[in-house]
Structure formats: structure tokens, C-alpha cells
Records
---
Amino acid sequence: MIKPVLPEPRVIPRAEHTVSRADIDREALKVMHRLRDEGHLAYLVGGGVRDLLLGKKPKDFDISTSAKPGELRKIFRNSRIIGRRFRLVQVFFPGGKIIEVATFRCRSEFEVNGGEIETLAHDNTFGTPVEDAFRRDLTINALFYEIENFTVIDYTGGVEDLRNRLVRLVGDPDRRLLRDPVRMLRAIRHAARSDFTIEQETWGAICRHVDKLSLCPDSRLRDELFKDLRAGSSRTWADFALASGIFFELFPFYRGVFPLPGPADQEGQRLAAPVPLVALLFKLLQVVDQAVAAGREFSEEMLLALLLLPWAEARFGLLAKELDRSVAYRFSRKLRSELDQVLAPLNIKRSSRESLAMLLSNLPLLLTHCPVESEEVGEWPKPLTRKGYFPQCLAFYELYRAALTGEQPSEVISAAAPPPPVARQKGARPGRRRVGRAPAIVKKKGGIFGLKK
């Protein structure tokens, strides 16, 4: 098979870009210098270079190199190889810092062929720097920074797209989306996160191929969804997702609740005239973004409850329900049953579905005690506050109230965060302890081999 001729890169000298070594983690620089000293190419790649060019502080610094995983393990003794299909090396430093190093590749990690994810042999995935750039999803994520001459290397036009505030798929957008439909989720996430516009050919391909998301594993779609909701730009993400139709592929039960996108929505990459329930969703997600910007974290069930509240209002008239004790239980069971059905495609775990049903079904109770229209939140009934689920339900109520009134959510929304993992003592074994049973071995002499008589 004849390989296509790939273009020469555009090399941007230090005087013409804003990437500075002072803004790069010391550990990442150590890794690149060590690889260079061992005779290998080593570049800072991807989102780290993009964020530095945008004047942002990157969350992670990833490195690509010509060294193979086995060679990396020999160079860095403080490392390990992870991944089965696409191996990369994690280099560990004091203080918990981890730098991930990958060998240049010529293929993407996820490729769809005939409705199935391709399994690629490990030696067939290694490539050159130019092949590594062209296998990436977006031009703005295909930039390299090298420490020999402090230059930025651009094979795909990513620097120009950054200047024009454009999100563009690398290569032919139709082909790239058919090969891995999850790329459309990443495109709208980066557009929302940086307040960029999606390039027209890329946007058109996304609108044409939204139905191909059904080819992707549930776990990938679920993981990408929660990345979007926790990115601090979920309000803008929802606008892109609704205008493109992606939202209805992820949540088909919203068809008939929200209007499907029309030509004006798709042309403008935004909803031209949001209906009231869409406006409610936007307000809820705006509050989430404000809380994320303030350093808050949200559990999966809290995010899903906010995302599904407009659906629950349309389906059950949730916000106006008056539930006494006997009706409330039956309603919660009915709601749980419907949630099991509508969330089946995302494979949400059972405990999260139960918590989600608890949050939605108890909101009418809190609204009965303290309507949103009331100027102040009074004292809650003592029996209600003693319930184990009250803190999370109160957090959900606070977020809903903030969305409608424009108030800042109180500190109680910290209850929306997932609980920290409980550390088990070293040597402790899980399982129930037998109560009321003395040990078989006793210190007193007697019996057979020290056993009790």
C-alpha cells in the first residue's frame, strides 16, 4: 500500500510564539532532556502546547518520543508501562507527579471498521512525528514543542486555527468521524471550553454523522459525557450538542421534550430560540459551571439529576407535584423504573440510578417546604434533616434554586461532591467479622494442639 505524501512542518521560532520553559513543569523538562541525551526525539505535545499558546496553565504535560516503551523503561527506572492495545509509559516523581510518555504512533487508539473497533498489533502502531501529528483528532491538539531550539512544530495548521479561534478535525472530517465517531464529542468540548467556533466542514460532518455515535462502546460515551459536564463549560457544550443533534443521540428520551434542531440552529451552531425547558437546562448547567470555576466537584448522580430535571418535569410534572408519604414512595419506584429504561444505553451503574431517583423524587418535598419564590430559606423540619439522604437532596435543591433566582449556591453544594474513598488499613481483609465467636486457638494449655477442649 502506497503511503500518502505528508507535508513538511511549519516551524515557529521562539521569537514568534509564547511558549516558555518557565511555564512547563520541571519534571516534564527533565524527561525531555533525558530522552534527548539518550539520542531520541522528544516533544511536548497536544493540549499542553495548545494551552500554553493560549496563555493558559495546562493541567497535564504529555510527551511523545521516538523511544519504544521497552527503551523508556530502561531509561527511566522510576516508571511503568500501562495500556494493552496502545502502551505508554508513566514516569513517577516525588510528590505524586506523573509524566506520561508515548511513542510516536501512526494510528489512533480507537478506530471503527465495519461497526467494530479494530484491534491493532503493537508494532504496527509506531510511527514518525508527522504520522503522529496526523493521527490526532484536532489541529489545535497536533502541535509539538521541542527543547533543542525552543520551536513549535506545526504539521496541520493548528497555530493558524488557534489564532482564528477555530476547532478543525485533522484530515478529511467525514472519514475521520466515520473511523472514530467520538471525535465529534471532543470537537464540541474543545469549542465550548475555549469559546471557539467549529470550522464549517467539520461542523457539517458532525451534523451528518451524529447517528454513528451508536457504534461506540457505552463506556466511552459515558466517560466523554462526564468530562464535558465537569469541564466548566457545560452550558456552551449543551448549545453545541443540541444544535448539532448530538444531544438527542446521547439522550434519545429527550426527543419530543426538546425540539429537534432546524437549519437555523445548525447554521449558527447555537439554538436560535430555546424553548422554556431548554432554557431551564441552560440555567442549571450555568450554575454547574460557576460552581466548577469555584473549585467544586460533582458526583455522577448529581450531574445526571440536573441534566434530567427538564425531562422529569415534562414527563411527570415534577416541579409542581404535591406528594404525601404514601404517594411519594410509589412515585419514586415509578421514577426509578423509567430511569432504568432511559439510562440503559449509557450503562449507568445501579447505585447511581438509585441516587438519581432519590434526588429527583425528593425535590418536590423540599419545594413544598420552601418554594423558590420565598425570599429566604427557613428551617427545615427536624424529621427531614435526620434523613441520611437530606444533605444531597438539599444540595440539589440549592442548585435548582440558584438556577431560577440567580443567587449564588450556598456552601451546602459541597455535599454534591463524591465521598472520598475510605482508606483500608494495611493488611486488613474485606468482609464481615464473625460476631460472638471466640478464636479457635487459645493461649491456655490443654486440648489437642492448643485447640479448645
---
Amino acid sequence: MAENLSTALQITVIGMGLVFGGILILWGLMSLLLRLTTPKDEITEVPSTGDAATDEAYAQKRRVAALAVAIALAHERDQQKPQPFPMPPTAIVSAWQAVMRTNQLRRRGTR
């Protein structure tokens, strides 16, 4: 009996080791592929022309873009609010169902 239990535990440990080893290998492969295929972010600096009017126009465009993003996010947030549940177009039990149920109850009679 103890030998069977020992064999079962050995098989369990070996199986779990293989599973977790496979998971770790897949994790390593995914991180390696991610490093190899992700494009590097290049930092682009805005060329400063030294012209105050151009710099002011650029700052104005950035403000307008930020405002547009803020409005879009606020509109999206309002759309995500729960809407009131619409009332069903008919009653839960239609007139036809009520008549048919009444007929069935009448056929059964009183008990």
C-alpha cells in the first residue's frame, strides 16, 4: 500500500514539474518574442524655430487637441452610464394567454 502511494506521489510530482516547466518555457519564449518584435520608441523632439508666433501656434494646437480629447472622453463616459430599462411593448401576460389559462382552469374544475 505504501509503495503504491509512493509511486502515485512520484508520478504526481513529475507531472506537475513537467507542466510548470512547460509553462515557464512558454513564458520565456513569449517574452523573448515580445522583445524581438516590439518596435523601439523613438523620441522625436519638436524643432524650435525660435519664432514666438510659431511656438504660440504650436501651443494653441496642443491646447485644442487636449480639449478635444477631454470632450471625447467625457462624451464616452456619459454613453457608458446605465440607461433606464425600457418598458415591454405589451403586458407580461397577454389577453390571449389570460383567456387560454382561464379556459384550462375552468376545464379542470374546482378541487
